[in-house]
Design goal:
The complex is a heterodimer of chains A (499) and B (77). With 499 residues, chain A is α/β, with parallel strands linked by helices. Chain A is built from 15 helices and 25 strands. Chain A has helices spanning 7-16, 32-49, 65-76, 89-99, 123-126, 166-176, 201-211, 220-224, 226-236, 245-252, 277-286, 310-316, 409-417, 454-461, 490-498, and strands at residues 21-25, 28-31, 56-60, 80-84, 103-106, 120-122, 146-152, 160-165, 189-192, 214-217, 240-243, 267-270, 291-296, 306-309, 325-326, 333-337, 350-355, 372-373, 376-386, 389-395, 400-402, 405-407, 424-431, 437-445, 473-477. Chain A has an eight-stranded mixed beta sheet, with helices on both faces. In chain A, helix 10 (245-252) links the parallel strand 11 and strand 12 (267-270). Chain B is 47% helix and 0% strand. Chain B contains three helices and no strands. Chain B is globular and about 30 Å long. The chains are: A alpha/beta (499), B mainly alpha (77). Chain A binds chain B through residues 225-227, 229-230, 246-247, 249-250, 253-256, 403, 430, 432, 436, 438-439, 470, 472-473, and chain B through 17-18, 31-33, 35-41, 43-44, 52, 54-58, 60. Chain A: Residues 12-364 form the AMP-dependent synthetase/ligase domain.
């Protein structure tokens, strides 16, 4: 493992190759020289305009101003909070207040409607060289200081704030850049699919910036249009692709996704959800010379903590789900724990638990309590460890994974319950035969006369929830079924409506 | 086995997870029914039926409705 990387080294690495391209998205780009110069200017401006340690919200999608903002926050010792411009303004405001943020910096436009009393500023002019003396050196920081805060869906009905310390980010950087197939040479390209509010994007950012490589981050338009996407994949000349398994499967639906399209591709890093065995087999037969890494890790442990070479796994395990990592080469210690926190024997199913530098210290106040047991962080993921491999088999709670996104049904139910006329609400997943979540289904209890048109329900929900959390199907019921304990009988709903 | 429109429509409904996908005027994109996983199920199902449809070759609205998908499949045969 490369032990030399720390976050301040990252700045030195960026400075080594000022002429090389650092970041491109949507036709706009930055060299390392531009990235670092602008980040230093912005870091100085942050200290002058909003002194103190309050986190900075970075609002946008993949505009080049966003990585400038992230690097500036790391230089200035401020936590950054990525907020996607696809989020409704109400959610961004909730996140702003929960994070105790000092300011919101936006790439294109501020979220609307946005309360006037909350400070905002455009990212781009604020990092323009010449407006202020750039920050000369990174501000000294403790390893425990928060590097960034990601917000995921929360079971309490509000977004869950996950602060990740600088030591965890540095440990992730050490681990990911030590994967031989992923390491970039200066000038080589990594393509990233995920937006910055999804921590998978840390992988492509880290691989690029630690290796003085070029990150091509796919724009919303490219992701929505297969023809445009394939033109960009081809033009990128990428050596590495970082994506969710769903994205990889979508690409594989087209026979043109092949070495002829991406002749330099040598590795794909998949994380965020289950990589189906057939998808791995299809990719490896299509790209026989490339490595496919199947990775695992919760946001609470800085993106990913372990990975396995899918070709090796397919050869070792003739059938069944693929493992998600190797214990020996993990960024942290990994074990399966029993209900009382006891370490389980080889192959015994339990709860996956993590211990080490990558693991966070707890959620933001009001976001619930993290579950620690004897120094182990209990992930809530079910799984087991066998023969040095880690398997993740699902969740022990209600949390759902949809195309890589974490969704707590409780947060969607809270938004549904706030709709006019809704007396009770329940949200259940509709699953495909292989167990993956196809969509959310909402069950609403309301009097006939109080039922809103479906379009109106969707419009009101979209004011509170990001698109990936919106239910795909709505069922109005006179009464939700209840169990003997008076709780919603989810099993009956599933039997009656979803099977 | 002869490929019929009913087989394709059944595949569309299965991919979208609901027979509502076949309703007249249903916009599969706007309604969210034709999401990423639906696309994967549809294209893989068509491949199993011997229809090779390349997403990159399709018109932007080819997946917007069941009749549009049927037309794209017919054009590919």
């Amino acid at each position: 493992m490369n032990n030399r990387i720390c976050l301040n080294d990252l700045v030195e690495r960026c400075a080594q190759s000022p002429h090389l391209p650092a970041y491109e998205s949507g036709g706009w780009g930055l060299s390392y020289g531009q990235l670092l110069t602008r980040a230093r200017v912005l870091a100085a401006a942050l200290g002058q305009l909003w002194p103190g340690e309050g986190p900075i919200l970075l609002y946008g999608h993949k505009q080049p101003a966003l990585p400038v903002g992230m690097l500036a926050c790391l230089l200035a010792g401020r936590a950054y909070v990525p907020c996607d411009e696809g989020w409704p303004a109400a959610r961004v405001e909730t996140v702003f207040r929960q994070a105790g943020a000092a300011a919101l910096l936006f790439a294109d436009e501020a979220p609307a409607p946005w309360p006037e009393e909350l400070p905002t500023a455009p990212l781009w002019p604020m990092c323009e060289p010449g407006i202020i003396e750039p920050l000369a050196a990174p501000r000294p920081c403790s390893p425990e200081q928060t590097a960034y805060i990601l917000f995921s869906s929360g079971s309490t009905g509000r977004p869950k704030g996950i602060p990740v310390p600088r030591r965890a980010l540095a440990n992730f950087a050490r681990w990911i850049t030590a994967r031989p197939a992923l390491t970039l040479a200066p000038g080589e390209t990594v393509v990233g699919q995920a937006g910055f509010s999804f921590d998978l994007s840390l992988t492509d950012l880290t691989l690029a910036f630690c290796g003085q490589g070029r990150l091509v981050s796919l724009s919303r338009e490219e992701l929505a249009d297969p023809a445009l996407l394939f033109r960009q994949l081809s033009a990128s000349g990428a050596a590495v692709l970082v994506c969710t398994p769903t994205f990889l499967e979508l690409c594989l639906c087209d026979k043109n996704f092949s070495p002829a399209l991406m002749p330099k591709l040598r590795a794909v890093f998949c994380c965020g959800e289950v990589l189906p065995r057939p998808a791995a087999e299809k990719f490896l037969s299509r790209f026989p010379g490339a490595a496919l890494l199947n990775a695992y890790g919760p946001t609470e442990a800085a993106c990913a903590v372990c990975a396995v070479n899918a070709a090796d796994a397919l050869a070792t395990f003739a059938d069944g789900p693929l493992p998600v990592g190797l214990v020996e080469q993990a960024a942290v210690e990994i074990a399966a724990l029993g209900p009382k926190g006891e370490l389980l024997a080889e192959g015994e199913p339990g709860e996956l638990a993590l211990r080490g530098e990558s693991v966070f210290s707890g959620y933001l106040p009001g976001s619930g309590d993290a579950r620690f047991s004897g120094g182990w962080y209990r992930t809530g993921d079910s799984g087991f460890v066998k023969g040095g491999h880690v398997w993740c088999t699902g969740r022990l709670d209600d949390q759902l994974k949809y195309c890589g996104w974490r969704i707590e049904p409780g947060e969607v139910e809270a938004a549904l319950h706030a709709l006019p006329g809704v007396e009770r609400a329940a949200v259940l997943p509709q699953r495909s035969p292989d167990g993956r979540v196809r969509r959310l289904c909402a069950f609403l209890q309301a009097a006939q006369s109080a039922r809103l048109p479906e379009e109106e329900v969707r419009r009101l929900l979209a004011q509170r929830l990001p698109a990936y959390m919106l239910p795909g199907r709505l069922f109005w019921l006179d009464e939700l079924p209840v169990t003997e304990n008076g709780k919603c009988d989810r099993a009956q709903l599933a039997r009656e409506f979803l099977l | 086995m002869q490929l019929t429109d009913d087989m394709i429509l059944s595949l569309i409904a299965n991919a979208c997870g609901t027979p509502r996908a076949l309703e007249e005027g249903m916009d599969l994109i706007e309604s969210g029914l034709m999401d990423s996983l639906a696309r994967i199920t549809l294209f893989e199902g068509l491949e199993d039926l011997g229809v090779e449809l390349s997403p990159t070759q399709l018109a932007p609205d080819a997946l917007r409705s069941a009749p549009a998908i049927l037309a794209a499949v017919h054009a590919a045969l």
